[in-house]
Write a structure and sequence with these properties.
The complex is a heterotrimer.
Chain A lengths: L1 H13 L3 E9 L6 E6 L7 E2 L11 H8 L3 E6 L1 H12 L8 E6 L7 H6 L5 E7 L2 E6 L2 E6 L21 E3 L12 H8 L2 H12 L7 H5 L27 H12 L9 H5 L7 H15 L26 H4 L5
Parallel strand pairs in A: 1-4, 4-5, 5-9
Antiparallel strand pairs in A: 1-2, 1-3, 6-7, 7-8
Chain B lengths: L2 E4 L3 H9 L3 E8 L2 E6 L5 E2 L18 E10 L2 E6 L7 E6 L1 H14 L6 H9 E6 L24 E6 L2 E6 L2 H7 L3 E2 L4 H14 L17 H5 L4 H5 L7 H5 L6 E7 L4 E7 L19 H19 L11 H5 L6 H8 L6
Parallel strand pairs in B: 2-7, 7-8, 8-9
Antiparallel strand pairs in B: 1-10, 1-11, 2-3, 2-4, 5-6, 5-13, 9-10, 12-13
Chain C lengths: L7 E12 L2 E8 L13 E6 L3 E6 L10 E6 L3 H8 L5 E8 L14 E6 L3 H13 L7 E7 L8 H8 L7 E6 L9 E2 L2 H8 L6 E5 L2 H13 L7 E4 L15 E2 L2 E2 H4 L2 E3 H5 L6
Parallel strand pairs in C: 7-8, 7-11, 8-9, 9-10, 11-12
Antiparallel strand pairs in C: 1-2, 1-6, 2-5, 3-4, 3-6, 12-15, 13-14
Classes of the chains: A alpha/beta, B alpha+beta, C alpha/beta.
Chain lengths: 323, 340, 275
Amino acid sequence: MQEMIINRLRELLADGEYAGVIGWAQGETPFDRTPNLFNAEGLDQLRYDSFCGSNLSKYLVQQASKTEKKIIALLKPCDCYSFNQLCTEHRIDRNKVYVIGVGCKGKIDVEKIRKAGIKGITGITEDGDLLKIETMYGEKEISRKDVLLEKCLACKGKEHKCADEVLGESEETCSGDKYAAVRRLEAMTAEERFEFWRGELSKCIRCNACRNVCPACSCIKCVFDNPNSGVQNKAAADDFEESLFHIIRAYHVAGRCTDCGECSRVCPQGIPLHLLNRRIIQDVNELYGDYQAGESIGQRHPLTDFTLEDEEPSVIDTRGGGK
Amino acid sequence: MMKQLPLDRLPELFRKISEKKTVIAPIQSAGQVNFGVWTEDSILRLDALKTVKSAKGAFFPQVEDIVRFRMEGKKIDIHPADVLTEEFVIFGVRGCDARSFELLDRVFLSDPVDPFYAARRQHGTVVTLACNEPEETCFCTNFGIDAADPAGDVTCWIAGDVIYFRANTEKGIAFTADLESAENESPVEELKKNITEILKKLPFGALNLTGFDGDHLMERFNDPRWSELARGCLGCGTCTFVCPTCQCYDVRDFDTGSDIQRYRCWDSCMFSDFTLMAHGTNRPTQTERFRQRFMHKLVYFPSNNEGLYSCVGCGRCLEKCPQSIHIINVIKALGVNKDA
Amino acid sequence: MPDNIIPMLGVVTAIRIDTPDIKTFRVEAVDGGKCFEHMPGQCAMISVPGVGEAMFSITSSPTVKDYQEFSVKKCGCVTEWLHHMDVGQQITIRGPYGRPFPVDTELKGKDLLFIAGGVGLAPLHSVINYVLDNRTDYGAVDIVYGSRSKEDLLDLPEIQSVWADPASKMNVHLTIDREQDGWDGHVGFVPNFVKELDYKPDRTVLVCGPPIMIKFVLEALTEMGFVKTQVYTTMELRMKCGVGKCGRCNIGDKYVCKDGPVFRFDELDELPAEY
C-alpha cells in the first residue's frame, strides 16, 4: 500500500498545485513513525504501514493555515472523524485540504509488545496475523491482534468520512463492546471507582502530551497555560490536582471528542484517559440518542444543541447520581 | 570482598533497612513501574529495565515545597521548608540513572549549592543494579557508562537466584556490612562478560558525536535542519519529564487558604511559556524550544562541563515520545560525519 | 538554613511615582539598613507571596548606605501588584545576583557614554550615581537619555538637579520621541540623537533600553567607528532561581542571571541570538 500511496502522491505533487503532504516519516528505529510534511523530493522517506498509529489531523490546523496552496493529508478512517470535527469548529478550512483516505487494518502498539515481555526489538515483520519479531535475544512471535493499539479495539469502521479519494483496503478491528471497560467501572462502588482513578491519575506527570496531541484540544491558549486563569500550573500542588486537570479536560472536550484514542496512546504512564471521555460519550448516547462526533462536517452536537425534548438536569438524580 | 543474598530474601533485607531508613525501589503501581517507597505490599520490579520516570526524583522531586509565607496585613512571615534529615536508600538504580546523579550534581552542587538537593544527596545511599538484558533503546555505551558494572555506593548483580553486592564507598560499606560474604564471585564475572557482549549489539551503541561541543556551538545552533526535525514535535514535556538529566524547574506559589506555599516543580523548555515574559518570549516557535533542549544536552552542557554530555543514553525518550522524535534523530541528523 | 532560594524580608519605606507607568520603590531590611550589599548592574529577586517573584535591576548606587531602590515599570502581575501597594508593605527579597558592570576595573579611568531609553535608565542609574560618587576615578561622562514623552522620562528631577548640575561634571542630553508642549529640548529617537552628538569612538559605552533601540544604537555606534569591545549592555530574560540552575535564562552556554546580566557586545556575538 505504501508504494501505491507514494506513486499517487508523486502524480499529485508533480504540477505544484499542492504545498505538500502531511504523512508519516521513517524514524530512527524500524518502527518509529514521525509526522512530517513532505514535498516531492522527500517522498522516499514517507512510510505507511502498521506503525502509523498517530492521528495527523491536528497538524492541519497549523499547516493548512500557513500556505495559500492546498495541502494533502493522509488520514486513516478514524482520523477522518477528528478532521471533520476540526472543520466543524472552523479550525481547519476544508477547502485547503485534499484528503487521501488510507486503508487501515489496525495499527500496532510497540509498547504492548514490550509489555508482553519481548525485549530488545530490532525488527518487526508481518505474516498475516503473526508478527515475527527480531530481537537482540533471538526471534520471537506474537499475534498481531493481541498488540493492536487500544484505539483499534474501538474501531469506528472502515469508512473514510471525509476522503477526496481512498487508497488501499481497510478492515474493522473492533473487539466487540467498546463500552465494556466503562461498564466495568460503572459496576464498581463509588469507593472502588475513586480508588481506581486515583491509582491511575496519581501516575500523571503533567507532561501535557494528552492535551497537546488531542484534536479536540485546539484552543489557542489553554486555560492551564494562562497565568490569568487562576488554574495555571505545571505540577500538582496537591494530590487532587491531577484529577482536576484530567476531569476538566474531559469536560472541555465533551461532545466534541471523537474517541480517537490519542490521549491514551501517548500517555507515558499508560493512564486509560480515553475511558473518561468514553464515559461521557456513553452518557450523551443514552440521554440524547446515538451521536458520533466528527461523523460529518457542520453537525450540531447534543450538548450545544438545545431541543424541547432534551433531558432535564434532574435526570442525574433519577439515574442514581444523587446517591 | 563481595557480599551475597538469595534473591528471595531481598524483602527481608528491605524490611530490616526500612526499620531505620526509607527504601526507594522500582515499584509497580497501576501497571507502570516507577521508583517509589517500598512497603510490605509493594510489587517490587527489579526486572523492569526502565522505570517510566527516571530515578532523579529521589534527589530532585517533581514537586518540592521550598518556603511558606504567612501574610498578615502588610506583614509577612517566612518559614523555609526543612531540608531532608532522614537517611534513605535508593535501590535498583541502573548505570544510566546513576550517572545522571553526577550530572545533576554539576548543577545543584555548584556554587551556590542547592540546599534541598544537597541534603538528599548527603542522606541517600545509591544501590545500583547491573542490566542483565539491555534493550534496543539503550545507548549508554556512548557516554562511557558500563551497564555491566554501574557506579553508585553499592553495585548489585542478579545472577540466577542470588544477588551479589559490592560496596564502592563508605556508605556502601555500611550498607553491606551485615550481609554474608560471597563464596564465589565467578557468576558475577560471567554475567558481566555476558552483558558486555550484549552491549556490543545495541543498535545505537556507537553514535558519532563529533561536532557536538562548545567549539561548534554556533554551527550546531544555526543548522537549518532544526525546523525539519521539530516539525512533528507536539511541544509536550514527555521527553523532559522522563529524562534523568533534565533539571529545569519552575517556582510557583500555591494559596492554601491560610498561607502561601512556594514550591518548585519540574519544568520543560519544550513548553511555550517557559521563557514567556510580560512583553513576549524569546523562543516564539516550537523549533526554538526543541533546539534549546537538544543544544543544552549536546552542546551547552558539555561546553561548561569538560565535554560531558547531559545525556546518559537511558533511551526513555525513544520509548516515550508520542511522535518518535528524540535525541537519536538529532545526533544522527546534525552530527558531523567523521568520514566527511 | 537554606539560603540561596529562600528570600529574606524587606520593607518598602518609600514609593516615588516617576512616570505614568514607572514607580521607584525604596526597600530596607526590617530592622533598617540595606538587605545586602551589591554592585552596579546587579539584580535582586523581589516577590509578593501568592503573586509571584521577579528579577529587578537594583537602581540605587551601592554608595547609598541605608537602602536600595528599584524602578519598576508596570507590565506583568508582580509589577502590577507592586504598583498598587503602600509604604510599609513587606515584600521578600533575595540577591544580589549576576555580574555587575566592571566599574572598578575596565570602566575605571575611561571616558564614559551612557545611552538609555525608557525604563532602560534603571540599571544605568546605579552606575551613573556610583560614577558620580567616585567622580575622580572616571574621565568625561555623557548621558544620552530618551523616552516616548516628557512624562515618560525616568528620574527627571534628579537628572535636572543633580546629573545636569555643573558640579557633577557630566553632560546630560535628553530627547523625547515626539514634539510636546512645554518641551524645548531635543526631539527624536535615541540612535539618531547619538549620531547627531557625534561622539569620538574613544568612549566606553553603556547602553540599555528596548531591544529595537539597542539594535539601532549599536548600528549607529558602529557607523561612528566604535567597536563591540567598547560597548556594554544589560539583558533581561525570564528568571526563576537567579543562580543558574532553573534553566530559564539559558542562552548558549551562558546563564543571564549568573554570567550576565551585564555583557559586552563582543561576548554577545559568541552567543546564539536568542534574546
